[in-house]
Amino acid sequence: MTDPILRIAGVSKTYKSGTTALHSVDLDIDRGEIFALLGPNGAGKTTLISIVCGIVTPSTGTISVDGHDALTDYKAARSRIGLVPQELSTDQFETVLATVTFSRRLFGRSGHSAYIEELLRDLSLWDKRDTKIMGLSGGMKRRVLIAKALSHEPDILFLDEPTAGVDVALRRDMWKLVHKLRARGVTIILTTHYIEEAQEMADRVGVITGGKLLLVDRKDALMKKLGKREVDLKLAEPMAAVPDALSRWNLTIADDGRRLRYVFDAEAEETGIPALLTALSGAGIAFTDLETRKSSLEDIFVDLVREKK
Ligand SMILES: Nc1ncnc2c1ncn2[C@@H]1O[C@H](COP(=O)(O)OP(=O)(O)OP(=O)(O)O)[C@@H](O)[C@H]1O
């Protein structure tokens, strides 16, 4: 194993207001992985990212970025990071090219570069390079934020809620770019409310709520371990209550008595379905259709957050 590119150890944050946004968070991020940080509003995602990027000071704990302490060796640590924030706070009167080039120069890189051209082309911004920021649509401004974050060729890219309020074209461009960056070895950490995206994109997932990192696991393992499967039977006759004869199965009635639902562990050796079907027939319960479903990362997430409350 190589050293993690990012090491967060015992990081807590209590704001002046008295709100504790993070409780002793430990997290190692591997080189080149795509990590999704999932959590409801107010979970502490932005606070954590802001601390790593040196925008917010932690109350306790240490952060090491590629071996550089984020507090004592701030410049070296920060130069390895690109941050795409949720909102744009950039000079409205500058052109796209000037803004992105300026961001690059801030990190001591030469201004004019084939890299910037490629970046702007990847983000469909090249044709707009001489347009002032204030003349861009909201979606285009988001693209500029991404270009700025990537302007100095960082090793780690943070995307804070990257697709909130973004149209399909930008989403597509963004995920294409994420794949390209990853192929180049860039580590990507994203926070998202769009769980399907974490499911599609991430190698590992961290679930945070109330400032605590509840779990971190490989996405596949998480879905295997915590995933549920469901069998949904459409009943020929509506049913008011689950008969006693069927009490050994975890059954619920749905759709005003028209459906019977059986939920079981996706990994269970014995699903219990054959016995259930026999018992249904023995109890004279007929069904007209049967559907099966596997839980999504979203179901797992909702269950987890509910459990820990
Ligand atoms: N500057 C601040 N001063 C005081 N409290 C803050 C500050 N920033 C955030 N908080 C509080 O810290 C907690 C965590 O907020 P944070 O923005 O990190 O959550 P988040 O997971 O990013 O939420 P969201 O998904 O809504 O962006 C919240 O209770 C929030 O109100």
Automatic annotation (TrEMBL):
SUPFAM superfamilies of this UniProt entry?
P-loop containing nucleoside triphosphate hydrolases
Specify whether Disulfide bond is a keyword of the entry: no
Cross-referenced Pfam families: ABC_tran
| Residues in ABC transporter domain copies | 6-235
Molecular function (GO) terms for this protein are: ATP binding; ATP hydrolysis activity
Record's Gene3D superfamilies?
A: P-loop containing nucleotide triphosphate hydrolases
Keywords linked to the UniProt accession: ATP-binding, Nucleotide-binding, Transport
- Keyword Transmembrane helix attributed: no
Entry protein name: ABC-2 type transport system ATP-binding protein
